[in-house]
Amino acid sequence: MSSWSESRVARELSKLRERWFPKILIEIKASGLQYSLYQDSNWVVVDSLPETHSVFEQKTLLIPDAVSFFKLRRFPVESVSKQTLNEAIELDLARWSPWQEGVEFYYWPKRSGDHWQVAVWVWQSDYMPTVTPGLGAKPTHVIPERAWKLAALDTEEPDFIYIDGGEGESRVYAEVAKDFATLRIVDINNATDAKRFKTSLRAASAPVYAAAQSKSTALLGEKLREQPWEQPANCLTAQYSLPDPSALAAGRQAGISDWSDPFVWARPTGAVAALYVCWLLAEGLVLLKQGDEVLEYSSQASSASIEVLDARAEVERINGLLAQIDRMRANQLNLESILASLSTTLPNNAWLGHIEYRGDDGGWLEFSGKSEQSSTLAAVLEQIPEVQQAMFLTDIRRDKRTGLEPFKIRLKLAVKEQ
Q: Which of 16, 151, 356, 395 is the most buried (most CB within 10 A)?
């Protein structure tokens, strides 16, 4: 096949994907909603969306930076697994979020040594109802605007600096490492802030990308000579492609299927494949009954029947194991409820330093900390419905320097009855 034919086939396939699997980007501007379609490997701004909606469309809504709040958080891998990061972040929001109730959040984790380094954006949940009525169909993904830009930046460099416009004349600088690990996002208001940011870079030679709407790539224009790292030779205009798959998956909305994701097709495709295999087997059995080799085929069918019975027995065994797992899950303790009860029951003069959960013998929760009156904690903690018994693991002695009493307590958790 000639190169011309190959390019033509590629163009036709691209048009087919854009028609049946459209990728739509929705930005919230002061003048209203702005739509962009991904066409020919570029995001193209359009006046309006097609009247007909495809069930396979991927519609991403960007939360404006002005209504979201960013924070970089760290969690120890030893106590927080990747599966429990969502719960840990939700509990952690109370420490730093400007809104304590009615919030939604988006996070982007990256493991760094023995810690999770997590970029977290939070915004008020009542903001979404003010936007979604004008969208028609609900978005499949909701991602903070700056998170999407970092994940969709068209670059091959493992480390890079991203410059975007901030409020007024300020700029926002972001340092991003390999696999789009967001190291920090800083507001830059003057040349001193820019120099301080530069001197603390992990990779001083990292390329710099500036958002297209920032007409001046230098901070405050006249400071260009004081910032040689933002010279045009090293500062490129940001171009955006499709975002990193993991970053996009983090913004997927619950209950909405993104059919442009190959993994979503796994279950229906597997079901169709299983039906097709069953049909082939049925056709094969019909063919086996024909011809002069009936006896030989009958023998094979007998062997196949034995295998089917064995397979059926195996299926029944697996179903029994699954039922047992369901019963075990039903008996599992709700650690989130226990931690919430613990946080409300502990007196204000008690501070925790370490918590460890052990699943043996019905479940134990051990924690240590300091209190002004540790001797009363056991009786207080036994008032929690999920706690069966509280016991001290160490003697209580007051620290003369701090005036506090260190303690280490083990809670025997109540087993949930069936």
A: 151
* Cα angle: 150, vertex 153, 155; to 5 degrees: 125
Which one-letter DSSP state was computed for residue 151? H
DSSP string, 268-299: HHHHHHHHHHHHHHHHHHHHHTSSS-HHHHHH
CB atoms < 10 A from the CB of 230, how many? 22
Through-space distance between the first and last CA atoms of the chain, rounded to whole angstroms: 67
The backbone torsions φ and ψ at residue 266, rounded to the nearest 5 degrees and listed phi first, read: -60, -45
Does domain 155-238 fall into CATH 2.40.50? no
Beta-ladder partners of 35: 26, 46
Q: How does strand 235-237 pair with strand 208-210?
A: parallel
Per-residue pLDDT of the chain (418 residues; tens, 9 = 90+): 555 555 665 556 656 666 667 888 999 888 888 889 888 888 888 887 766 666 778 889 999 988 999 999 999 999 999 899 999 999 999 999 999 889 999 998 988 889 999 999 999 998 888 887 777 778 889 999 999 998 888 888 888 888 887 776 778 888 888 777 777 888 888 888 888 888 888 777 788 888 865 433 333 333 333 343 344 456 788 888 888 888 888 888 887 665 555 555 566 677 778 888 887 887 777 776 666 666 776 677 677 778 888 888 888 888 877 776 666 565 555 677 788 888 888 888 888 888 888 777 767 888 899 988 888 888 888 888 888 888 888 888 888 888 898 999 988 887 665 4
Name the fold adopted by 1-144+250-259.
Nucleotidyltransferase; domain 5 (3.30.420)
Query: Residue 180 corresponds to which tokens in the numbers above?
Result: 């789009």
Q: How many residues are there in the chain?
A: 418
Contacts of 135 (CB under 8 A, 6+ apart): 26, 33, 59, 61
335-413 architecture in CATH? 2-Layer Sandwich (3.30)
Burial label for 3, CB within 10 Å (0-12, 13-18, 19+), is: exposed
